[in-house]
Amino acid sequence: MSLFVKNIFPGASIQDNGRPGLQRFGVTAGGAIDSFALEQGRSLFKEKSNTAAIEFSGSGGKFIVGQTSYFSSTGAHSVVKLKGLKKAQGQIFKAMEGDEIEVSSISKGFYSYLHVAGGFLTSCHLGSRSGNVRAGLGTTLKKGDHLPYVSELNIKMSSVKFIDYMNTRQIRIIEGPQTHLFSKKLLERFLDTEFEVSIARDRMGIRLNHTGSNFCHKDGLKILSEAIELGDIQIDGQGLPTVLLNDRQPTGGYPRIATVISADVHKVAQIGVNSKLHFTLVSLGEAIKALKDYEDMLSVMDKDVTFLNRDPRDISNLLSYGLVDGVIRGDEYDKS
Amino acid sequence: MNIKQKNIIFPKISSLGDKALIVEFGDHFDVNLNKKALALDFILNEALPYGITETAPTLISLMVRFNPMKITYKSVREKILFLLEGDLDVSTNKGRLFVIPAVYGADDGPDLDEVADLMKMAPDQVISSHTDHEQQVMMLGFGAGCSYCGLLPPVWDIPRGNRITPSVPAGSLLIALRQTVFPSTSMPTGWRRIGTSPCRTFDLNRDPKFLLNAGDRIRFEKVSKNKAKSIPHDTLWETFEL
Predict the structure, then answer these.
(1) E strands within chain A?
(2) What is the average per-residue pLDDT within A198-211?
(3) What is the pLDDT of residue B242?
(4) Of chain A's two ends, which shows fewer C-beta atoms within 10 Å, N or C?
Protein backbone atom coordinates (compact mmCIF):
# COMPACT_ATOMS: atom_id res chain seq x y z
CA MET A 1 0.00 0.00 0.00
CA SER A 2 1.07 3.56 -0.43
CA LEU A 3 0.58 7.21 0.35
CA PHE A 4 -0.78 9.07 -2.67
CA VAL A 5 0.75 12.48 -3.42
CA LYS A 6 -2.30 14.65 -4.20
CA ASN A 7 -0.35 17.89 -4.29
CA ILE A 8 3.25 18.82 -3.58
CA PHE A 9 5.43 21.90 -3.64
CA PRO A 10 8.81 21.54 -5.40
CA GLY A 11 11.81 20.53 -3.34
CA ALA A 12 10.17 17.73 -1.35
CA SER A 13 11.93 14.38 -1.35
CA ILE A 14 12.29 11.10 0.50
CA GLN A 15 15.24 11.17 2.92
CA ASP A 16 17.06 8.76 5.18
CA ASN A 17 20.71 8.69 6.35
CA GLY A 18 21.97 9.03 2.77
CA ARG A 19 24.99 7.44 1.10
CA PRO A 20 28.14 7.99 3.14
CA GLY A 21 31.45 6.69 1.82
CA LEU A 22 31.03 7.37 -1.91
CA GLN A 23 32.67 10.78 -2.25
CA ARG A 24 35.64 9.19 -4.07
CA PHE A 25 33.16 8.12 -6.78
CA GLY A 26 31.69 11.60 -7.11
CA VAL A 27 28.62 11.11 -4.90
CA THR A 28 28.14 13.15 -1.70
CA ALA A 29 26.35 11.53 1.23
CA GLY A 30 23.10 13.52 0.94
CA GLY A 31 20.49 12.32 3.44
CA ALA A 32 18.05 14.30 5.60
CA ILE A 33 19.18 17.92 5.96
CA ASP A 34 17.88 17.99 9.54
CA SER A 35 19.15 14.71 10.98
CA PHE A 36 17.81 15.69 14.39
CA ALA A 37 14.23 15.96 13.10
CA LEU A 38 14.61 12.64 11.25
CA GLU A 39 15.81 10.94 14.46
CA GLN A 40 12.95 12.49 16.45
CA GLY A 41 10.47 10.87 14.06
CA ARG A 42 12.21 7.54 14.38
CA SER A 43 12.29 7.71 18.16
CA LEU A 44 8.49 8.19 18.25
CA PHE A 45 8.10 4.85 16.50
CA LYS A 46 10.93 3.22 18.49
CA GLU A 47 12.61 2.74 15.13
CA LYS A 48 16.29 1.82 15.21
CA SER A 49 16.93 1.24 11.51
CA ASN A 50 17.57 3.62 8.62
CA THR A 51 13.92 4.45 7.89
CA ALA A 52 12.97 7.09 5.33
CA ALA A 53 10.60 10.06 5.75
CA ILE A 54 9.27 12.80 3.49
CA GLU A 55 11.33 16.00 3.69
CA PHE A 56 9.53 19.24 2.81
CA SER A 57 11.52 22.32 1.96
CA GLY A 58 9.77 25.60 2.61
CA SER A 59 6.29 24.34 1.63
CA GLY A 60 4.27 21.21 2.18
CA GLY A 61 1.77 19.04 0.31
CA LYS A 62 -1.42 17.01 0.42
CA PHE A 63 -1.62 13.23 0.64
CA ILE A 64 -4.25 10.49 0.61
CA VAL A 65 -3.68 7.56 2.95
CA GLY A 66 -3.81 4.23 1.10
CA GLN A 67 -3.89 1.99 4.14
CA THR A 68 -4.50 2.71 7.81
CA SER A 69 -1.27 3.47 9.65
CA TYR A 70 0.44 5.83 12.05
CA PHE A 71 2.13 9.09 11.06
CA SER A 72 3.92 12.01 12.69
CA SER A 73 5.51 15.31 11.75
CA THR A 74 8.77 16.84 13.01
CA GLY A 75 11.19 19.59 12.00
CA ALA A 76 10.24 23.09 10.90
CA HIS A 77 7.02 24.38 12.44
CA SER A 78 4.15 23.64 10.08
CA VAL A 79 0.42 23.12 10.18
CA VAL A 80 -0.39 19.42 9.91
CA LYS A 81 -4.01 18.46 9.34
CA LEU A 82 -5.71 15.08 9.26
CA LYS A 83 -9.10 15.34 7.51
CA GLY A 84 -8.97 19.10 8.15
CA LEU A 85 -8.25 18.77 11.86
CA LYS A 86 -4.96 20.07 13.22
CA LYS A 87 -2.51 17.55 14.61
CA ALA A 88 0.34 18.47 16.95
CA GLN A 89 3.88 18.01 15.64
CA GLY A 90 6.17 15.57 17.44
CA GLN A 91 3.21 13.32 18.22
CA ILE A 92 1.91 10.14 16.59
CA PHE A 93 -1.50 10.22 14.92
CA LYS A 94 -3.51 7.46 13.30
CA ALA A 95 -4.84 7.95 9.77
CA MET A 96 -7.37 5.63 8.15
CA GLU A 97 -7.55 4.48 4.56
CA GLY A 98 -8.82 7.36 2.40
CA ASP A 99 -7.97 10.10 4.92
CA GLU A 100 -6.30 13.26 3.71
CA ILE A 101 -3.12 14.50 5.40
CA GLU A 102 -2.10 18.06 4.69
CA VAL A 103 1.20 19.71 5.63
CA SER A 104 1.20 23.47 5.10
CA SER A 105 2.41 26.86 6.29
CA ILE A 106 6.00 26.14 7.22
CA SER A 107 6.46 29.19 9.44
CA LYS A 108 9.51 28.74 11.65
CA GLY A 109 12.38 26.81 10.10
CA PHE A 110 12.60 25.49 6.54
CA TYR A 111 12.74 21.66 6.50
CA SER A 112 9.75 19.74 7.83
CA TYR A 113 9.33 15.92 7.92
CA LEU A 114 6.38 13.54 7.63
CA HIS A 115 7.07 10.07 9.02
CA VAL A 116 5.10 6.87 8.71
CA ALA A 117 5.55 3.89 11.05
CA GLY A 118 8.18 1.63 9.48
CA GLY A 119 9.25 4.31 7.01
CA PHE A 120 8.53 4.81 3.31
CA LEU A 121 9.71 1.99 1.07
CA THR A 122 10.52 3.87 -2.14
CA SER A 123 13.36 2.66 -4.37
CA CYS A 124 16.76 2.19 -2.82
CA HIS A 125 19.83 3.32 -4.79
CA LEU A 126 23.37 2.70 -3.49
CA GLY A 127 21.97 1.69 -0.12
CA SER A 128 19.69 4.67 0.42
CA ARG A 129 16.26 5.96 -0.57
CA SER A 130 17.37 9.60 -0.31
CA GLY A 131 16.34 11.76 -3.25
CA ASN A 132 19.29 13.48 -4.93
CA VAL A 133 18.24 15.48 -8.00
CA ARG A 134 21.79 16.16 -9.14
CA ALA A 135 22.83 12.51 -9.14
CA GLY A 136 19.42 11.20 -10.25
CA LEU A 137 19.19 8.94 -7.20
CA GLY A 138 16.33 8.07 -4.85
CA THR A 139 12.93 9.77 -4.91
CA THR A 140 11.96 13.40 -5.29
CA LEU A 141 8.22 13.90 -4.89
CA LYS A 142 5.87 14.67 -7.77
CA LYS A 143 2.11 15.09 -7.82
CA GLY A 144 0.56 11.69 -8.54
CA ASP A 145 3.34 9.64 -6.92
CA HIS A 146 2.54 6.63 -4.78
CA LEU A 147 4.91 6.27 -1.84
CA PRO A 148 4.84 2.68 -0.60
CA TYR A 149 4.81 1.71 3.08
CA VAL A 150 3.70 -1.27 5.11
CA SER A 151 0.84 -0.67 7.51
CA GLU A 152 2.01 -1.19 11.08
CA LEU A 153 -0.77 -1.30 13.60
CA ASN A 154 1.09 -2.34 16.72
CA ILE A 155 2.12 1.21 17.58
CA LYS A 156 1.93 2.96 20.94
CA MET A 157 0.70 6.54 20.74
CA SER A 158 3.55 8.74 21.90
CA SER A 159 4.97 12.23 21.74
CA VAL A 160 8.55 13.48 21.86
CA LYS A 161 9.92 16.33 23.97
CA PHE A 162 9.77 19.58 22.08
CA ILE A 163 13.20 21.10 21.45
CA ASP A 164 13.13 24.37 19.54
CA TYR A 165 16.29 25.06 17.54
CA MET A 166 14.57 26.88 14.68
CA ASN A 167 15.65 30.31 15.90
CA THR A 168 19.41 29.73 16.14
CA ARG A 169 21.04 32.85 14.75
CA GLN A 170 24.63 32.30 15.93
CA ILE A 171 26.24 29.65 13.79
CA ARG A 172 29.61 28.25 14.86
CA ILE A 173 32.34 27.77 12.27
CA ILE A 174 35.91 26.48 12.26
CA GLU A 175 38.86 27.30 10.04
CA GLY A 176 39.60 25.02 7.10
CA PRO A 177 42.35 24.30 4.55
CA GLN A 178 41.76 27.55 2.61
CA THR A 179 40.99 29.98 5.42
CA HIS A 180 44.59 31.25 5.18
CA LEU A 181 43.94 32.45 1.62
CA PHE A 182 41.77 35.20 3.08
CA SER A 183 43.34 38.12 4.92
CA LYS A 184 42.85 38.44 8.65
CA LYS A 185 41.01 41.69 8.07
CA LEU A 186 38.61 40.07 5.62
CA LEU A 187 37.95 37.17 8.00
CA GLU A 188 37.24 39.64 10.81
CA ARG A 189 34.80 41.51 8.60
CA PHE A 190 33.16 38.19 7.72
CA LEU A 191 32.64 37.46 11.42
CA ASP A 192 31.26 40.96 12.03
CA THR A 193 28.81 40.75 9.14
CA GLU A 194 25.12 40.11 9.57
CA PHE A 195 24.04 37.72 6.82
CA GLU A 196 20.60 37.03 5.48
CA VAL A 197 19.41 33.73 3.99
CA SER A 198 18.50 34.40 0.36
CA ILE A 199 15.84 32.75 -1.75
CA ALA A 200 18.62 31.00 -3.73
CA ARG A 201 18.71 27.90 -1.60
CA ASP A 202 18.17 24.19 -1.99
CA ARG A 203 19.62 20.89 -0.75
CA MET A 204 22.93 21.78 -2.42
CA GLY A 205 23.50 25.00 -0.54
CA ILE A 206 22.30 28.32 0.85
CA ARG A 207 23.37 31.57 -0.77
CA LEU A 208 23.76 34.33 1.84
CA ASN A 209 23.15 38.03 1.28
CA HIS A 210 24.70 40.88 3.19
CA THR A 211 25.13 44.62 2.90
CA GLY A 212 28.59 46.08 2.38
CA SER A 213 31.34 45.00 0.05
CA ASN A 214 31.84 41.41 -1.03
CA PHE A 215 34.51 39.05 0.28
CA CYS A 216 36.74 39.15 -2.76
CA HIS A 217 40.13 37.64 -2.55
CA LYS A 218 43.06 39.43 -4.17
CA ASP A 219 44.90 36.42 -5.67
CA GLY A 220 41.90 35.46 -7.76
CA LEU A 221 39.37 33.04 -6.47
CA LYS A 222 40.04 29.84 -8.37
CA ILE A 223 41.93 27.08 -6.61
CA LEU A 224 42.49 23.55 -7.84
CA SER A 225 39.41 21.41 -7.44
CA GLU A 226 39.39 19.82 -3.99
CA ALA A 227 37.00 17.70 -1.88
CA ILE A 228 34.13 19.74 -0.41
CA GLU A 229 32.77 19.04 3.06
CA LEU A 230 29.27 19.41 4.46
CA GLY A 231 28.95 22.91 5.93
CA ASP A 232 31.80 24.43 3.93
CA ILE A 233 31.28 28.14 3.27
CA GLN A 234 32.36 28.75 -0.30
CA ILE A 235 33.24 32.23 -1.54
CA ASP A 236 32.45 32.42 -5.25
CA GLY A 237 34.00 34.57 -7.99
CA GLN A 238 31.88 37.57 -6.99
CA GLY A 239 32.91 37.26 -3.35
CA LEU A 240 29.53 35.94 -2.17
CA PRO A 241 29.24 33.18 0.44
CA THR A 242 27.26 29.94 0.06
CA VAL A 243 26.89 27.37 2.84
CA LEU A 244 27.18 23.98 1.16
CA LEU A 245 24.74 21.31 2.28
CA ASN A 246 24.07 17.57 1.88
CA ASP A 247 23.62 17.46 -1.91
CA ARG A 248 26.66 19.65 -2.66
CA GLN A 249 29.09 18.77 -5.42
CA PRO A 250 31.82 16.37 -4.26
CA THR A 251 34.60 18.66 -5.49
CA GLY A 252 34.91 22.34 -6.23
CA GLY A 253 37.35 25.05 -7.14
CA TYR A 254 36.08 28.00 -5.10
CA PRO A 255 37.94 28.60 -1.83
CA ARG A 256 36.13 27.92 1.42
CA ILE A 257 36.57 30.59 4.08
CA ALA A 258 35.42 28.29 6.93
CA THR A 259 33.20 25.29 7.74
CA VAL A 260 30.04 25.20 9.83
CA ILE A 261 30.57 22.75 12.71
CA SER A 262 28.68 19.43 12.44
CA ALA A 263 26.50 20.22 15.47
CA ASP A 264 25.22 23.41 13.77
CA VAL A 265 24.70 22.30 10.16
CA HIS A 266 21.05 21.36 10.70
CA LYS A 267 20.52 24.63 12.54
CA VAL A 268 21.88 26.82 9.75
CA ALA A 269 19.85 24.81 7.21
CA GLN A 270 16.66 25.45 9.21
CA ILE A 271 17.04 29.23 9.07
CA GLY A 272 14.18 30.59 6.98
CA VAL A 273 14.49 32.79 3.90
CA ASN A 274 15.19 36.48 4.76
CA SER A 275 16.19 35.57 8.33
CA LYS A 276 19.45 36.90 9.71
CA LEU A 277 22.48 35.09 11.10
CA HIS A 278 26.02 35.63 12.36
CA PHE A 279 29.02 33.34 12.28
CA THR A 280 31.19 32.74 15.36
CA LEU A 281 34.65 31.25 14.99
CA VAL A 282 35.38 28.38 17.40
CA SER A 283 38.28 25.94 17.82
CA LEU A 284 38.28 22.35 16.57
CA GLY A 285 38.13 21.26 20.23
CA GLU A 286 34.95 23.27 20.79
CA ALA A 287 33.46 21.81 17.59
CA ILE A 288 34.17 18.26 18.80
CA LYS A 289 32.70 19.06 22.23
CA ALA A 290 29.53 20.40 20.55
CA LEU A 291 29.37 17.32 18.32
CA LYS A 292 29.66 15.04 21.35
CA ASP A 293 26.84 16.94 23.09
CA TYR A 294 24.73 16.66 19.94
CA GLU A 295 25.34 12.91 19.59
CA ASP A 296 24.61 12.43 23.30
CA MET A 297 21.32 14.24 22.78
CA LEU A 298 20.49 11.91 19.87
CA SER A 299 21.36 8.82 21.90
CA VAL A 300 19.06 9.72 24.79
CA MET A 301 16.23 10.86 22.55
CA ASP A 302 14.28 7.70 23.29
CA LYS A 303 14.02 8.87 26.91
CA ASP A 304 12.29 12.04 25.71
CA VAL A 305 9.44 10.01 24.25
CA THR A 306 6.36 9.72 26.43
CA PHE A 307 3.45 7.42 25.76
CA LEU A 308 0.10 9.09 25.46
CA ASN A 309 -1.92 5.95 26.23
CA ARG A 310 -1.03 5.30 29.84
CA ASP A 311 -1.41 2.07 31.70
CA PRO A 312 -3.98 2.65 34.50
CA ARG A 313 -1.71 0.71 36.86
CA ASP A 314 0.95 3.44 36.42
CA ILE A 315 -1.45 6.23 37.35
CA SER A 316 -1.12 6.88 41.06
CA ASN A 317 -4.07 9.28 41.26
CA LEU A 318 -6.39 7.18 39.11
CA LEU A 319 -9.45 7.87 41.28
CA SER A 320 -9.15 11.63 40.78
CA TYR A 321 -9.91 11.15 37.08
CA GLY A 322 -13.53 10.28 37.98
CA LEU A 323 -13.64 7.48 35.44
CA VAL A 324 -16.67 5.96 37.18
CA ASP A 325 -19.22 8.63 37.88
CA GLY A 326 -22.41 7.83 39.85
CA VAL A 327 -23.77 4.52 41.00
CA ILE A 328 -26.02 2.07 39.20
CA ARG A 329 -28.13 -0.81 40.45
CA GLY A 330 -27.02 -3.16 37.72
CA ASP A 331 -30.35 -4.29 36.34
CA GLU A 332 -31.31 -1.13 34.38
CA TYR A 333 -30.97 -2.82 30.98
CA ASP A 334 -32.89 -5.95 32.05
CA LYS A 335 -36.20 -4.04 32.04
CA SER A 336 -36.00 -2.76 28.45
CA MET B 1 59.62 14.76 0.33
CA ASN B 2 58.70 18.14 1.79
CA ILE B 3 58.30 20.81 -0.83
CA LYS B 4 58.27 24.46 0.17
CA GLN B 5 56.00 26.79 -1.79
CA LYS B 6 55.16 30.35 -0.71
CA ASN B 7 56.23 29.69 2.90
CA ILE B 8 53.89 26.73 3.20
CA ILE B 9 55.47 23.34 3.68
CA PHE B 10 53.87 20.54 1.69
CA PRO B 11 52.43 18.03 2.21
CA LYS B 12 50.16 20.19 4.35
CA ILE B 13 47.52 18.62 6.58
CA SER B 14 44.53 20.70 7.68
CA SER B 15 41.25 19.86 9.34
CA LEU B 16 38.28 20.00 6.99
CA GLY B 17 35.25 20.52 9.17
CA ASP B 18 35.29 18.45 12.36
CA LYS B 19 35.00 15.01 10.73
CA ALA B 20 37.65 15.11 8.02
CA LEU B 21 41.08 16.37 7.08
CA ILE B 22 42.77 17.17 3.85
CA VAL B 23 46.34 16.37 2.83
CA GLU B 24 47.53 18.86 0.23
CA PHE B 25 50.66 17.94 -1.71
CA GLY B 26 51.15 21.35 -3.33
CA ASP B 27 49.30 24.43 -4.52
CA HIS B 28 49.52 24.02 -8.29
CA PHE B 29 48.78 21.10 -10.54
CA ASP B 30 51.60 18.68 -11.15
CA VAL B 31 50.99 15.10 -12.22
CA ASN B 32 53.63 13.87 -9.74
CA LEU B 33 51.65 15.44 -6.89
CA ASN B 34 48.57 13.59 -8.14
CA LYS B 35 50.56 10.35 -8.06
CA LYS B 36 51.47 11.07 -4.44
CA ALA B 37 47.83 11.70 -3.52
CA LEU B 38 46.89 8.41 -5.22
CA ALA B 39 49.73 6.55 -3.50
CA LEU B 40 48.66 7.77 -0.04
CA ASP B 41 45.06 6.88 -0.91
CA PHE B 42 46.18 3.40 -1.92
CA ILE B 43 48.25 2.61 1.18
CA LEU B 44 45.57 4.00 3.53
CA ASN B 45 42.91 1.82 1.93
CA GLU B 46 45.03 -1.34 2.06
CA ALA B 47 44.06 -1.46 5.74
CA LEU B 48 41.83 1.45 6.71
CA PRO B 49 42.79 2.39 10.29
CA TYR B 50 40.06 2.14 12.95
CA GLY B 51 37.83 5.21 12.92
CA ILE B 52 38.71 6.29 9.37
CA THR B 53 35.59 5.94 7.25
CA GLU B 54 36.55 7.03 3.74
CA THR B 55 39.16 8.71 1.59
CA ALA B 56 38.70 10.70 -1.61
CA PRO B 57 41.63 11.76 -3.79
CA THR B 58 41.46 14.91 -5.92
CA LEU B 59 44.08 16.32 -8.29
CA ILE B 60 46.74 17.21 -5.74
CA SER B 61 45.15 16.35 -2.41
CA LEU B 62 43.51 13.59 -0.43
CA MET B 63 40.44 13.97 1.78
CA VAL B 64 40.33 11.60 4.75
CA ARG B 65 37.07 11.30 6.66
CA PHE B 66 36.90 9.81 10.15
CA ASN B 67 34.56 9.44 13.08
CA PRO B 68 35.85 11.93 15.70
CA MET B 69 34.06 9.95 18.42
CA LYS B 70 36.38 7.02 17.62
CA ILE B 71 39.64 8.71 16.61
CA THR B 72 40.93 12.24 17.08
CA TYR B 73 42.10 14.57 14.33
CA LYS B 74 45.51 14.54 16.00
CA SER B 75 45.91 10.76 15.78
CA VAL B 76 44.70 10.58 12.16
CA ARG B 77 47.21 13.31 11.38
CA GLU B 78 49.99 11.39 13.11
CA LYS B 79 49.15 8.19 11.25
CA ILE B 80 49.33 10.06 7.95
CA LEU B 81 52.56 11.85 8.84
CA PHE B 82 54.03 8.45 9.65
CA LEU B 83 53.02 7.14 6.22
CA LEU B 84 54.49 10.24 4.60
CA GLU B 85 57.87 9.80 6.25
CA GLY B 86 60.46 9.13 3.61
CA ASP B 87 59.14 9.09 0.09
CA LEU B 88 55.76 7.68 -0.86
CA ASP B 89 56.25 4.88 -3.32
CA VAL B 90 54.19 6.16 -6.24
CA SER B 91 54.66 2.88 -8.11
CA THR B 92 52.65 0.77 -5.61
CA ASN B 93 49.33 1.40 -7.25
CA LYS B 94 49.23 0.61 -10.94
CA GLY B 95 45.44 0.39 -11.04
CA ARG B 96 43.53 -1.65 -13.58
CA LEU B 97 43.67 -0.97 -17.31
CA PHE B 98 40.42 -0.33 -19.16
CA VAL B 99 40.10 -0.07 -22.93
CA ILE B 100 37.18 2.25 -23.59
CA PRO B 101 35.55 2.52 -27.04
CA ALA B 102 34.65 5.99 -28.31
CA VAL B 103 33.19 7.61 -31.42
CA TYR B 104 35.15 10.73 -32.42
CA GLY B 105 34.06 13.84 -34.32
CA ALA B 106 30.84 14.88 -36.08
CA ASP B 107 27.76 14.81 -33.79
CA ASP B 108 29.64 12.78 -31.20
CA GLY B 109 32.53 15.23 -30.99
CA PRO B 110 31.35 18.62 -32.29
CA ASP B 111 34.49 20.44 -31.05
CA LEU B 112 37.02 18.08 -32.68
CA ASP B 113 37.88 20.52 -35.49
CA GLU B 114 38.31 23.42 -33.08
CA VAL B 115 40.60 21.29 -30.90
CA ALA B 116 42.56 20.26 -34.03
CA ASP B 117 43.01 23.96 -34.93
CA LEU B 118 44.23 24.79 -31.44
CA MET B 119 46.65 21.86 -31.54
CA LYS B 120 47.70 22.73 -35.11
CA MET B 121 47.07 19.14 -36.15
CA ALA B 122 44.69 17.38 -38.52
CA PRO B 123 41.56 15.92 -36.81
CA ASP B 124 42.74 12.37 -37.61
CA GLN B 125 46.08 13.04 -35.90
CA VAL B 126 44.24 14.39 -32.87
CA ILE B 127 42.22 11.17 -32.66
CA SER B 128 45.29 8.93 -32.99
CA SER B 129 47.15 10.92 -30.37
CA HIS B 130 44.17 10.57 -28.01
CA THR B 131 43.86 6.81 -28.56
CA ASP B 132 47.63 6.15 -28.51
CA HIS B 133 48.18 7.48 -25.01
CA GLU B 134 47.24 5.64 -21.88
CA GLN B 135 45.75 7.99 -19.29
CA GLN B 136 45.39 7.64 -15.55
CA VAL B 137 42.14 8.29 -13.67
CA MET B 138 43.50 11.15 -11.54
CA MET B 139 40.28 11.74 -9.59
CA LEU B 140 36.51 11.39 -9.73
CA GLY B 141 34.43 14.45 -9.03
CA PHE B 142 31.76 16.90 -10.07
CA GLY B 143 29.13 14.15 -10.44
CA ALA B 144 28.62 10.39 -10.01
CA GLY B 145 31.37 8.48 -11.84
CA CYS B 146 32.73 11.58 -13.59
CA SER B 147 36.41 10.78 -14.17
CA TYR B 148 39.30 13.21 -14.68
CA CYS B 149 41.93 11.42 -16.79
CA GLY B 150 45.42 12.43 -17.85
CA LEU B 151 47.92 13.53 -18.58
CA LEU B 152 48.01 13.70 -22.35
CA PRO B 153 51.21 14.95 -24.09
CA PRO B 154 52.01 18.70 -23.82
CA VAL B 155 50.48 19.43 -27.23
CA TRP B 156 47.11 18.82 -25.54
CA ASP B 157 47.63 21.79 -23.21
CA ILE B 158 44.70 23.78 -24.58
CA PRO B 159 42.55 26.06 -22.41
CA ARG B 160 38.94 25.46 -21.49
CA GLY B 161 36.48 26.98 -23.95
CA ASN B 162 35.09 30.45 -23.34
CA ARG B 163 31.45 29.41 -23.63
CA ILE B 164 29.43 27.02 -21.48
CA THR B 165 27.60 24.21 -23.27
CA PRO B 166 24.41 23.83 -21.17
CA SER B 167 24.35 20.05 -21.52
CA VAL B 168 26.65 17.39 -22.93
CA PRO B 169 25.52 13.75 -22.79
CA ALA B 170 26.81 10.98 -20.53
CA GLY B 171 29.91 9.37 -22.03
CA SER B 172 31.27 12.62 -23.52
CA LEU B 173 35.04 12.96 -23.96
CA LEU B 174 35.78 16.51 -22.80
CA ILE B 175 39.18 18.05 -23.40
CA ALA B 176 41.30 20.79 -21.77
CA LEU B 177 44.62 21.21 -19.90
CA ARG B 178 46.02 17.83 -21.07
CA GLN B 179 43.08 16.07 -19.44
CA THR B 180 40.03 14.12 -20.58
CA VAL B 181 36.94 14.57 -18.44
CA PHE B 182 34.69 11.55 -18.85
CA PRO B 183 31.23 12.11 -17.26
CA SER B 184 28.59 9.46 -16.70
CA THR B 185 25.62 11.79 -16.46
CA SER B 186 24.70 14.71 -18.70
CA MET B 187 26.25 17.93 -17.44
CA PRO B 188 26.97 21.55 -18.35
CA THR B 189 30.59 22.19 -19.33
CA GLY B 190 33.08 24.72 -20.58
CA TRP B 191 35.35 21.96 -21.90
CA ARG B 192 35.52 20.92 -25.56
CA ARG B 193 33.86 17.69 -26.65
CA ILE B 194 35.82 15.58 -29.14
CA GLY B 195 34.01 12.26 -28.82
CA THR B 196 31.38 10.14 -27.06
CA SER B 197 31.69 6.67 -25.56
CA PRO B 198 28.88 4.13 -25.09
CA CYS B 199 30.64 3.24 -21.83
CA ARG B 200 29.10 4.36 -18.53
CA THR B 201 31.44 4.80 -15.60
CA PHE B 202 28.35 4.81 -13.37
CA ASP B 203 25.37 2.52 -13.96
CA LEU B 204 22.82 1.67 -11.25
CA ASN B 205 21.79 -1.49 -13.10
CA ARG B 206 25.28 -2.95 -13.25
CA ASP B 207 27.50 -4.53 -10.64
CA PRO B 208 29.89 -2.92 -9.96
CA LYS B 209 27.91 0.31 -10.26
CA PHE B 210 31.08 2.40 -10.48
CA LEU B 211 33.46 1.22 -13.16
CA LEU B 212 36.53 3.36 -12.53
CA ASN B 213 38.41 4.14 -9.36
CA ALA B 214 41.02 6.85 -8.96
CA GLY B 215 44.37 5.29 -9.87
CA ASP B 216 43.01 3.09 -12.68
CA ARG B 217 44.31 3.56 -16.22
CA ILE B 218 42.32 3.89 -19.41
CA ARG B 219 43.04 3.91 -23.09
CA PHE B 220 40.40 5.09 -25.55
CA GLU B 221 39.85 3.07 -28.73
CA LYS B 222 38.22 4.57 -31.81
CA VAL B 223 35.10 2.72 -32.97
CA SER B 224 32.50 3.43 -35.65
CA LYS B 225 29.09 4.82 -34.72
CA ASN B 226 27.47 1.51 -35.69
CA LYS B 227 29.86 -0.49 -33.57
CA ALA B 228 29.22 1.85 -30.63
CA LYS B 229 25.45 1.39 -31.01
CA SER B 230 25.85 -2.39 -30.70
CA ILE B 231 27.69 -2.10 -27.37
CA PRO B 232 25.41 -2.18 -24.33
CA HIS B 233 25.99 0.65 -21.83
CA ASP B 234 26.33 -1.78 -18.94
CA THR B 235 29.22 -3.76 -20.45
CA LEU B 236 32.00 -4.59 -18.02
CA TRP B 237 34.83 -2.90 -19.83
CA GLU B 238 37.79 -4.47 -18.13
CA THR B 239 37.08 -7.76 -19.87
CA PHE B 240 35.76 -6.20 -23.04
CA GLU B 241 37.40 -7.30 -26.29
CA LEU B 242 37.21 -4.94 -29.22
Answers:
(1) 2-8, 13-15, 53-57, 61-65, 69-82, 85-87, 93-95, 100-116, 146-148, 158-160, 170-174, 195-201, 205-209, 226-227, 232-235, 241-244, 251-252, 256-260, 276-281, 305-307
(2) 96
(3) 41
(4) C
